[in-house]
Amino acid sequence: MNRSLPLLPGATIGVLGGGQLGRMMAMEARRMGYRICVLDRDTRCPTGQFADDVVVGTLDDLESARCVAERSAVVTLDTEHVPAEVLTAISEVAPVRPGPRVLATIQDRAVQKQFLDRLGLPQAAWSTFADDAELAAALTRIGAPAIIKARRAGYDGKGQARVEHAADAPAAWHRIGSQPATVEALVRFAREISVVLARGVDGAIAIYPIAENVHRHHVLHTTRAPAPMAPAQRAAAERIATTIAAALDHVGVMAVEMFELPDGTLLVNEIAPRTHNSGHYTYGACATSQFEQHVRAVCGLPLGDPRQLTAAVMINLIGDLWADGDPRWQHVLARPHARLHLYGKLSPARARKMGHVLLLDDDPDRALASVDELLAALQS
Ligand SMILES: Nc1ncnc2c1ncn2[C@@H]1O[C@H](COP(=O)(O)OP(=O)(O)O)[C@@H](O)[C@H]1O
Ligand SMILES: [Mg+2]
């Protein structure tokens, strides 16, 4: 197979994991003429519905991942939770972008936080621990309230437990299965923002307008872009994100989630070495979506124009909205400035991300003010 760069339309892109990020990338990749081969346990997964080829297997199964690599000119990821050992093994067959080292640094929260400390980047006071005594010692230093986070495999607040008082810490750790974890200070942030960028094989970087994010129950609820921000503050956030991308030698889209304190101080919350929920607004509001941008980066193409064409608000649609049956889509579809994205998931479990709505509006305050009413109408 020809794997020389740039990989041009007609080439096959392998995707490990068949969720909504892979799906939207597949939609953009196929529009551009690429082929998609995805690894997932279910051929009917969100990405599988837009793939040319599905290899059925689990993400930790080396043989299945190798099979994808053999059929692909480049392999990329829908999730950061593919074991780094699997990526290292298959990178002998096909290039893996981002590379195994990036994933090894990100997948373990303690290693990720050590990496950020080494770069001298600001984050909440944190510690890793292995038993109740170490947890107690860490809390003495950090103080309560605090948040315990599993070192591996967390997403959408899963594997996290809040500690109000130091005395509750063992019980909180028990609630997440007493697995290896980190503990960090609860941050009283003024708001959460994220920087979504892409870095090419040649090290070129394209940065999207910064997103302002509201979470509910630890799950992203809305994103507003561009985030209202003074130029110096925006430059500071961009500098943090580009420092991380370059230090990782990352290739592809990457997001850095940050807390902004009331005095303007920025703290890094976490790094996602992939397309990101807070970048979904780019798919509809920017000249180049984060999904096309990821394809361009991993194929060794020049990066596209990240310019935002219209202000936007993204609203996540989670499974809870399906409690009384299908939401009443006519209430989204009746709004000319609203774009509906559904991920084709087969069952709407609670807290599961099922889709999103993008509101294209020159006045994002107005769009944000309509979110509760829109969600209520969907369930009416
Ligand atoms: N130290 C913290 N202080 C305050 N809020 C936090 C803290 N850590 C996480 N959160 C909240 O929980 C959300 C999810 O946590 P995060 O660490 O980003 O995990 P993940 O996105 O992998 O589930 C954050 O976006 C934020 O709203
Ligand atoms: Mg997060």
Could you please describe the fold and organization of this structure?
The protein has three domains: 12-96, 3-Layer(aba) Sandwich (Rossmann fold), CATH 3.40.50; 125-185, Dna Ligase, domain 1, CATH 3.30.1490.20; 191-378, ATP-grasp fold, B domain (D-amino Acid Aminotransferase, Chain A, domain 1, 2-Layer Sandwich). With 380 residues, it is of the alpha+beta class. The protein is globular. It has helices at residues 20-31, 62-71, 84-90, 100-106, 109-118, 132-142, 169-175, 231-248, 282-285, 290-298, 330-333, 364-369, 371-378; strands at residues 12-16, 35-40, 53-56, 74-77, 126-129, 146-150, 160-163, 181-185, 191-199, 205-207, 211-216, 219-225, 252-260, 266-272, 312-318, 338-342, 353-360. It contains 13 helices and 17 strands. The strands form three sheets. Strands 9, 10, 11, 12, 13, 14, 15, 16 and 17 form a nine-stranded antiparallel β-sheet that branches. The structure holds adenosine-5'-diphosphate and magnesium ion. Adenosine-5'-diphosphate is lined by residues 124, 147, 149, 154-157, 184, 186-187, 192, 215, 218, 257, 269-270.
Total helices: the number is 13
Per CATH, the superfamily of the largest domain is: ATP-grasp fold, B domain
| Helical/strand content category | alpha+beta
Low-confidence stretches: none
Which architecture of the largest domain does the CATH hierarchy give at level 2?
A: 2-Layer Sandwich
Summarize the structure.
The chain has 380 residues and is of the alpha+beta class. It is built from 13 helices and 17 strands. It has helices at 20-31, 62-71, 84-90, 100-106, 109-118, 132-142, 169-175, 231-248, 282-285, 290-298, 330-333, 364-369, 371-378; strands at 12-16, 35-40, 53-56, 74-77, 126-129, 146-150, 160-163, 181-185, 191-199, 205-207, 211-216, 219-225, 252-260, 266-272, 312-318, 338-342, 353-360.
